[in-house]
Amino acid sequence: MARTSSAYTRTQIILHWAIALLILLQFLDSDAISAMIRDVGITASSATEISLAVRLHVFVGITTLLLMVLRLVLRFTAGAPALPEDETPVMKIIAHATHYTLYIALFLMPVSGLVGWFGQIENALAGHSLIKVVLLVFVALHISGALYHQFVLKNNLIKRMTFRQ
Hints:
The chain is mainly α. The protein has helices spanning 10-40, 52-78, 89-118, 122-151; strands at 4-5, 80-81. The protein has four helices and two strands, in the order E-H-H-E-H-H.
């Protein structure tokens, strides 16, 4: 995807954890916007009263998209550390596929939400719901892989995404 570097930059680490927090917030807050769309219909974005929780969901989605653009720019300019040398070819494929899928989902999720919400396009909202499932699966895979590296392989891979390098 990008050039290899010796470590993630401080900004890359901050973006990683900020986006992780925003994703968590979105999942915790998704019921409000789902309920509004269910109750009002596809025209929910033009409703006269929109709750703070719904506005927050839209704002956090836009913020996530902007941070993902910045993150992608940094990935291409600053690079990313190489995968561990002792990692098997299969594990490398899984790691790359997981990261590519996360990046794609983290772009498509807010874009589909914005198109569905502001464009009032039902197919975009359906896609948004589908991408949510994909994102959940790959976030779980990403976390599982990090924990596997940390506690089974004991190669301290998690340290690369902390400030204690």
